[in-house]
Design brief:
Layout lengths: L1 H7 L8 H67 L1 H8 L3 H6 L1 H11 L8 E6 L4 E4 L19 H4 L4 E2 L16 E9 L6 E9 L1 H6 L6 E2 L5 E8 L5 E3 L8 H4 L7 E3 L5 E9 L4 E8 H52 L14 H40 L1 H19 L3 H18 L5 E3 H18 L4 E6 L2 H4 L2 E3 L4 H12 L9 E10 L2 E8 L6 H13 L1 H7 L5 H12 L4 E7 L3 E9 L12
Protein name: Sensor histidine kinase
InterPro entries: Bact_2-comp_sensor_kinase (IPR050640), HAMP_dom (IPR003660), HATPase_C_sf (IPR036890), HATPase_dom (IPR003594), Sig_transdc_His_kin_internal (IPR010559)
Main location: membrane
């Protein structure tokens, strides 16, 4: 046995406090240095990327607002056209001669509308009845079937919102028919909403150059593109700028979905996309990553040169500190082994004022406390044995009382006194339920059994007949409550409610029922007694809420106030008694308890 203990006392080096401290110090020094370098590199990188993303997003938002402003001008032109009487008459017109006569008022109307955006290259008005009017260009009537063009949106799409078409040529114009344009298309209605048509406003791609002239390509000193902006349609076609071939064609379709893309020379770019909801166009800003990460690479190299000397210093410092701290701990370890073997005469004598010195003082105090606790355990065991003897002796008295009641019961039956016999049986059962258990928490069914015996006894002593009814589910009866919460309330109902009824022929009635509500159990006792006046009822409610414990302790109120005090001491202020009474109609007492399925649940303290 001694040999095994000697072997177990030898701690392997890898498990020793010196080795662990050495490793911990290395980890606490080298790991933070390494992580600081990596985190610095990562945070600076993310900070620069986030800053560029924010700057690019800010520029894109500004450009998106500019584009939205232009789109709103086109919508305003459409709204003014909708309010024009000349436009309304044109849409309602069915006669060709009247159609020719409508040109002059339409010219006057659109001359003012065109001033909102004079850079637009033409305005076209098409009625659903086949008439076409053009402003700002000469119409080629051989190519004026606008509803047949593939770029023309379906009329069902125009019923809710106007739209901007893709780039298309202008075969309906006698000049510049091959120059591509965008078209703003809006559904129009006559003022009486009986005639319909379409408004088409054409504008060149060069208008976007004027809108975004400050956001075009920027180049470095060597002519390489560093940053720029693109606009793509919903289908992925590049709308702006016109002459860009920086990125491969197949990558342009998904440029608004990626954060990184390579140009035709292999240079990596970072992109930021923003959707303009008015036009369904996507604005994409991009910038070259090589210009972004140059400062980051310099920070990384600088970190390496600081990290290597720091690691060497940490190795030396970790070795010294580990040795310095492990020696007194090993000494304390040997003392603890001796104490573990039952030798309490060895104390830690190392004179240090740091935490290890305090640990030694704590060890010395612990040894002293252990001695005191051992002495207390001996005393407690002695007191426990004496208490057990006293409890055994106290059981003799109830046993003697039960035997005496049983003898009286036998004598009553012998002399044919059934009422006395029944009263003795009920009294014995009542006393057995009262003193047979010392548990503070009991099932609700035991409370009901106790109240039932109590009411049966009162059938004999009361001057008037007492009827009672108990309505409670088995689930509620199986729950637990504080001992003796129903009987004092029932006794209060009999003594202060039923007994004072003047008419002796009136039967007293007590109803006891229970129900569950969320996590609470409600028990209610209702009588048909004399009730309470409003002033006394308010006084009782006030005392139950604020003075129950004081009245129970100092004024020996053992009825409702006693029950209220015990419930709140066990479960808290959220539970207890509430009373309701009407004079000459009786009184209702409701008890709120927590839902407890056993007698050892943690007592609530509200």
């Amino acid at each position: 046995m001694d040999l095994q203990e000697g072997r177990s006392s030898v701690v392997p080096f890898v498990h020793s406090i010196f080795f662990k401290l050495f490793v911990y110090f290395l980890l606490l020094s080298i790991v933070p240095l390494t992580l600081s370098g990596l985190l610095t590199y990562k945070n600076v990188s993310e900070l620069l990327v986030t800053k560029l993303d924010q700057d690019a997003s800010s520029v894109l938002e500004q450009n998106s607002r500019t584009l939205a402003f232009y789109f709103n001008d086109l919508k305003r032109m459409g709204e003014i056209s909708f309010l024009s009487s000349a436009v309304s008459d044109f849409l309602k017109n069915k006669d060709y001669d009247a159609y020719l006569l409508s040109f002059l008022p339409l010219d006057e109307a659109f001359s003012s509308i065109h001033l909102i955006r004079p850079e637009n290259v033409g305005i076209t008005l098409v009625s659903d009845r086949g008439f076409v009017y053009s402003y700002g260009y000469s119409l080629n009537r051989d190519q004026s079937s606008f509803y047949q063009f593939d770029w023309m949106p379906k009329l069902s799409q125009l019923s809710s919102e106007p739209t901007i078409t893709r780039l298309h040529d202008r075969p309906y114009s006698t000049s510049q028919e091959e120059e591509p344009v965008f078209s703003y298309v809006q559904r129009l209605y006559s003022k009486d909403l009986k005639a319909k048509g379409v408004l088409i406003i054409d504008f060149k791609r060069s208008i976007l150059d004027s809108l975004f002239e400050s956001s075009y390509f920027s180049k470095n000193a060597h002519g390489g593109i560093e940053s720029g902006m693109l606009i793509t349609s919903k289908s992925g076609d590049v709308l702006y700028p016109q002459d860009t071939d920086l990125f491969p064609t197949q990558d342009m379709q998904s440029l608004d979905q990626v954060k990184r893309i390579a140009d035709r020379s292999g240079n990596l770019y970072r992109s930021v996309a923003l959707l303009n909801e008015e036009t369904d166009w996507t604005l994409i800003g991009y910038f070259r990553e090589s210009n972004l990460y140059g400062p980051i690479y310099r920070i990384r190299n600088f970190t390496y040169w600081i990290l290597l000397p720091s690691i060497v210093f940490c190795l030396l410092a970790s070795f010294y500190l580990s040795h310095r701290m492990s020696d007194p701990i090993r000494h304390l370890q040997s003392l603890m082994k001796k104490v573990g073997q039952g030798d309490f005469h060895h104390l830690f004598t190392l004179r240090r004022k740091d935490e290890i010195g305090q640990l030694g003082q704590g060890f010395n105090q612990m040894v002293g406390k252990i001695k005191e606790l051992i002495q207390l355990v001996h005393e407690e065991q002695s007191q426990k044995r004496r208490a057990e003897l006293t409890a055994l002796q106290s059981q003799i008295k109830p046993h003697f009382l039960y035997n005496t009641l049983e003898s009286i019961n036998s004598l009553a039956r012998k002399h044919k006194e059934p009422q006395i016999s029944k009263m003795i049986v009920l009294l014995g059962k009542l006393m057995r339920l009262s003193i047979s258990t010392f548990d503070e928490m009991i099932p609700i069914w035991k409370e009901l059994e106790y109240v039932r015996c109590y009411l049966e006894l009162h059938q004999f002593r009361s001057r008037r007949p007492i009827e009672y009814e108990m309505e409670m589910d088995e689930e509620i009866q199986s729950l637990y409550t504080v001992k003796w919460v129903l009987q004092p309330v029932v006794e209060n109902a009999i003594l202060h409610g039923l007994d004072p009824i003047p008419n002796q022929d009136v039967s007293g009635r007590i109803e006891i029922k229970g129900w569950l509500e969320h996590d609470a159990v409600y028990l209610q006792i209702k009588d048909n007694g004399v009730g309470l006046e409003k002033s006394k009822l308010e006084e009782m409610r006030h005392n139950l809420e604020h003075n129950a414990q004081e009245l129970t302790q100092f004024k020996q109120k053992v009825g409702l106030y006693n029950v209220q005090s015990r419930i709140r001491l066990h479960f808290g202020a959220a539970y207890g008694l509430s009373v309701h009474s009407v004079p000459e109609q009786g009184m209702r007492v409701t008890i709120k308890l927590p839902r407890r399925t056993s007698d050892d649940q943690t007592t609530d303290r509200g």
